[in-house]
Amino acid sequence: MKELKKSDLEIGDILIFEDFDFSYTKLWEKWSKGGMRGVFYYLLHYLIAWFDPGKEGANYKNIYHAGIWGNVDVNRDNQQPPSFEDCVVQAGPDGIGHDSFENTRKYDSVMNVYVCRLKDQTPNFHNEINEAIREFYKVKGYYSFKTAWMLSAICSMRYSKGAVFTMIASRFGKSVARYIVKEMLDAINEYNDHHQRDMVACSPLVAMMYKNAGHELPVHVFELSQDQEPPKPKFDLSELEKELEPLNEKDADDWPPIKETVVTPRQLMESPAVELKGVIRHI
Fold first, then answer.
1. Which pLDDT score is estimated for 208?
2. Which helix or strand (DSSP H or E) is residue 64 part of?
3. What is the C-alpha separation between 9 and 101, in angstroms, rounded?
4. Do 110 and 116 meet the contact criterion of CB atoms below 8 Å apart?
5. Which CATH number fits domain 6-281: 3.40.50.1000, 3.90.1720.10, 3.40.50.300, 1.20.120.450?
6. Which helix (H) or strand (E) holds 254?
7. Residues forming beta bridges with residue 70, ordered by sequence position
């Protein structure tokens, strides 16, 4: 995979973050430095990756976060004159902020950043997406942990062996379960149309920016068929997996990609509308 430099990035590039493998040593370091708060944020990365394992199989990645490359006022939060620079724009616990290319590569939770780019760009795409980025960025706002946790439930619904999907399907059948899940996703999407500022989390923010710019991204709703085994996260979940009974019912017809904004980082990465351009490595 091509290793990218700052000069390779274009406005509107979607940045998908991969953490290092789970480490008990790192977990205790987080505990000693930040107590339960540090432990929570460390484990959250792996819970996100577990709930949304994607289709990578043996090439499983700990995907947990998404941002976007934009040009914004880096002096927004201080009293200095405006200074517009290209940087990483992202949603985190402190709301919508920015970070430099150099800093992003140094964090101990950033092993790789995968750069995805819209395939079919209109002549005015970069201006349109950056206007949408600046519109969100101008108000710092707050991070919606409710949205983040709702994403985990959505992931568990959209996989054929996810716990929530399994529960619905065992009672009503797989075809009905798919219909119920899609109706729930549609309802969430409709709510999001009128409450975007209340639903800011990392990957939904990127998806909302694209939607508001007129370039809404299609994503896959149901990822795994019944005869496929989910990828194995790189930490032990064997006891939990024993509780999930396999379904015998045949899969319903494949669902085409639909356009959503409450999406996971991995859904953005796997959108048929984008292509993977390369990777930014940790330093």
1. 96
2. strand 63-73
3. 10
4. no
5. 3.90.1720.10
6. none
7. 87
